[in-house]
């Protein structure tokens, strides 16, 4: 038995493959499209999300593996697979997901038709619609289109990643001369789906509109064959480590991204095989990276999900503003001085974060504002508040991370706006990505300076904060604020802190501290004390941390993990992980908050429990190659909120949850007599630390929550 245990611990089979685990997550997202309890357009939204997810997976993960194969890199992943072996495993899974996506779309399209919501093709157009489309094509589409001939004088053009294009075979109308090939790129300036006028919800794809009137583009030819294709390119950025001007280097890298290698082509399955071969030969794409589908570009379906048919959408949800701040007349700083607050997005409005910074910008007593920015929205109120603060004479520093994947160009633009307003903009480390979410405000109060800090588990992004579940923690704890100042000094001046009082930070101490906390639970278990770990995250990948979880499980530590996406840990294996349970929650909101809780010698939850919120997942990149934070939650009210409200609700959820089994499969939890949805619970109950006088007494999961 001891030998078997040793073999398990040494075997690479103790880990799931990262890429296959991610594909399993996207399959769970796609399964929500088949959830008949959801409104139809919300189900369509899940198809769009899964399609966008797949694009990013291909452009980054698959592209990375292809690059490794091309460079003859044979090093294996923790689960023992080489890059080529991973690609061999990925391709069938991708094909299967693509098929499921198309099947789901067809099913939902039929259901939408029964609800008088149509995505029509050109054969289904009414006479009046054809007339209207003819005028629309002439005035709004034709001037933007650029038909491209393909011949020795007109070589096959370059298309950027994500481009869609019609390919045509045209024949001289007089019968003299050979057939030719031509292209009509779908312009990015036009929406993919067009709302047809008149009663009812009727939409048509742009390519169908073009094909309806394509003869106008080639008056001397007959179109005898056609089809649509879409391509993706390698989108990994490479930045010169020695670059003196980081912004210029990133701008150059972004231009290179647009010209990366073609790694995937998706064809309309109606395209003649000869035209498909023509495109394949021109793009020099491998057969494994060619897909034929009934609807190209399912991610574009997001365009038709609007408020026109509220009966096909979830009822609107209006986030609450924390009652505690209302008790202080909207004065965020006064509320924070009274007590630490944690705000639970999207159930509580992100406006509180905006108001926190806007108040600081307008307060004449505030002298300094420091802010990290990883991703934010277009016309961001966060950026506006920082600009306003700088223009009013405050010292404002913004740490802008340029290495925010697919948001690099946006970050460059708003960084320039900040600089023009007088904000001191810092671009961080070349070899580290700054992923921490921190605001620090310094305010003069009498003869002293008081610091106020905000730490988030998610980005300073008002749009995503409406659908991502995240935590915002506000405090003026002196030690934590001093640590925040040390973090900013490290980010802006490379002043590596010799010591942090309460926070622990990647890449300096997170791995060591997390490992130490897990080891403490192991010691408790061996001493016969209660020992348990609860953790919630987006991804669990790090082999060292996983092995520590295995060791803890063997020692008798009860571990409950809520891992939304990638999980490389195998739960429930005797002699390895029999004390570990893993679940994933997928539903109306995207689970994004990171929380880790340790029993610390008493049963979870208790006053003795150690609770941390974080910007980091348990992945090598987050622990070793990013600047991240883990924040201790010490205030009793806030700790009870995280433990007894957020964590217990997530563990209790049986409507949005999937259980992970030792073989890598997931199954949706079966609802028992007591149906419980964490999402619905949080939508109807104010948070503990933000309740204020609006709710004086309430019970959560059988436990008193009175102040």
Low-confidence stretches: 237-247, 249-258, 702-707
CATH domain topology of the largest domain: polyphosphate kinase like
Q: What is the H level of CATH, i.e. the homologous superfamily of the largest domain?
A: Polyphosphate kinase middle domain
Classify the secondary structure makeup into a structural class. alpha/beta
Proportion of helical residues: 25-40%
Number of helices: 19
What fraction of residues sit in β-strands?
15-25%
Q: Brief description of this entry?
A:
The protein has 707 residues and is α/β, with parallel strands linked by helices. It has 19 helices and 29 strands.
Describe this structure in words.
By secondary structure, the protein is of the alpha/beta class. The chain has three domains: 2-312, 2-Layer Sandwich (polyphosphate kinase like), CATH 3.30.1840.10; 323-493, Endonuclease Chain A (Endonuclease, Chain A), CATH 3.30.870; 504-688, Endonuclease, Chain A (2-Layer Sandwich). It is built from 19 helices and 29 strands. Strands 14, 18, 19, 20, 21, 23, 24, 25, 26 and 27 form a ten-stranded mixed sheet that branches. Helix 2 (18-31) packs antiparallel against helix 3, helix 2 (18-31) packs parallel to helix 4 and helix 11 (351-362) runs parallel beside helix 12. It starts with a helix and ends with a strand.
